[in-house]
Amino acid sequence: MGLTERLTIPEEEFVYSGHTACGGCGGALAMRIALKALGPRTILVLPACCWAVIPGVLPATCLSVPVLSIGFAATGAAVSGIEASLKAQGIDDVTVVGWAGDGGTADIGIQSLSGAVERGHDFIYFCYDNEAYMNTGIQRSGATPSGAVTTTTPARKREEKKDMVEIMVAHHIPYAATASLAYPEDMIKKITRARSIKGPKYIHVLSPCPPGWRYPSEKTVEIARKAVMSRIFPLYSVEGGKYEIQRRNIKKIPVGDYLKMQGRFKLSEEDRAEIQKKVDENWESLLAKEGTA
Amino acid sequence: MRMILTGNYCAAHGAKLSRAKVVAAYPITPQTTIVEKIASMVATGEYDAQYVPVESEHSAMAACIAAEMAGSRAFTATSSHGLAYMHEMLHWASGQRVPVVMPVVNRAIGPPWNIWVEHTDALSQRDTGWMQIFCESNQELLDTVIMAYKIAEDRRVLLPAMINVDAFYLSHTLENVDVPDQDKVDSFLPPYSIPFKLDVDDPLGFGHLIMPDGWMELRWEIERSMVRARKVIEEVQTEFNEVFGRSYSSIEPYRCEGAERVVVGMGTMTSTAKDAIDALRRKGERVGLIKMRTFRPFPGDEIVQLLDREGIERVGVMDRSTSFGSDSPLYGEIKSALYGRSDVMINGYVIGLGGREIKVDDVASILKDLEVGERGRVKWWGLKIEGESGDEMKSEAKHGPD
User: Fold this and answer.
1) How far is B94 from B91, CA to CA, in rounded Å?
2) What's the gap between Cα A33 and its chain centre?
3) What domains are defined for chain B?
4) Prediction ipTM score
5) Which of A20, A126, B371, B386 is 20 to 30 A (C-alpha) from A41?
6) Does the beta carbon of A281 lie under 8 angstroms from any beta carbon of chain B?
7) Are A55 and B208 a contacting pair at CB < 8 A?
8) Across residues B315-341, what is the average pLDDT?
9) Does residue A41 carry a pLDDT above 90?
């Protein structure tokens, strides 16, 4: 990586020290990177999720942008209300951001998110996806991948992970993308792009979770990178319905290399082969959507 | 200006005259024509507001809370199941101290489906930290929307307000209404301002985690504000009465002078009761009515003082709602207010649930029942089950199963 590329990450910090996230929290790192791209003229909505407690105990907060906490299901509705309120006041230089976990996005919050996107409000919605209800102690969500053990799927989850980006694309959303905290330049580029587009934008950030995924806390970035390299979490964007894959030329690794770093997966060789098959099929399908298959 | 308006159109005009800048609402019978009217006034440019057609009532209230936190006066309206669906966000509004104003067109909650009037929807939200006001007429509804913003946004209060109106009797019934001039409303109701907001130039975080050592004090603040609201409501009503030529107060006695027996009620049943009382007074009976406008904060002291001042001996509380397994809501509140301060006889009457008509004769028969009835009972009035009222149910419980 060249020096010029490294400098695309702004130095200013908007997440101060003293937050209460676990060591190695992918969600905390995702917020740190995202706010660097969003900047100080941002209003943040946080529903129930790990980030409801990460800012710290009142009256302290580690976030230096205004934040409205809201009920679990209501992120989409709250960003709609803020956007309408700012519009009513003629304020057009503030970015309204919803920031929810995978449960708050794919499960309980999907209705209000769907409504907000369908109505076309101008906001960016982030799902920091740690693939289970981690704040309440690792219960399965609609975004938990097949094969993962959680406290409510003690054998392992049998069902497939919901594809939120595709659900957003089905809303004719102007911009949707995946992002990884192992590729901060890509993430910042995508947020910057999203800010330049009017209307609803959706960014899905895979956020590894040391206690939930059962791996040592220093491995977060490595696991995030392996998710992209193995193509189980490909980096891509969909703008105006047009798909574009990023980092397509990085060295492909077997998905087993990603899975075996984590204690949450209870898999046989056969299971791993099955997951590899699905990853390959999904990649082909993504190439087809991009028009490069 | 005089206009012929339904209750629902009065609510819409109230929002417009109050210059609520964000309206987020979801349709539900019988509230629908409120949001239809607002959508149409916004579409024609007659009303300058952002209309957000949300996908649920839960989202309606969340959007209103967020809109007010971001600096705009907000309005919504709902009914029945919609109000129940909003429940979590009702707590969020009062806990976050946003002065949202919301008419609720009172309707029964199913199953089975029932779209007609009942107060159980609103009264089962009693403990959410909302002020609750009940209206008797369309005029009262329109005026109360305007007053409610002034009360709710008062720095001594900063709590949301729910304005309750009877389904169909008000929501869909036309009435000759005096619609106040915008200029007069503007000088009565100042522009929206609360002492905190989401502001990128002064960033604050709202609603994060709090530990038990701070929580009770925040709840105490809400309690204190609710108590202060009693005074603020009276102040604002008095000012409104002077400016607009009305006569509102939190409890409105009707022909209570020298009354031995009174009925107490909320909403349109009080109009019916007035007719019953006029007829009985013509016959020389010493009867009266106490119309309750405010249910939260509850004007218990005022009720006790009124009963005491007028020397009223027997009170029948008419509840268009029920609390299964205990006293009906309004009856329970008044009984509680009287405890240790008065020994008037008081009975509760559950009546008119799910849109069942409350007739002049029903009120008269309740007043008659008060002449002979024992004290401290809840009766279901007009129940179409042979030989059953609340009485029998109670004695069954007393004696236990066979």
Assistant:
1) 5
2) 12
3) 2-244 (3.40.50.970), 251-399 (3.40.50.920)
4) 0.96
5) A20
6) no
7) yes
8) 96
9) yes
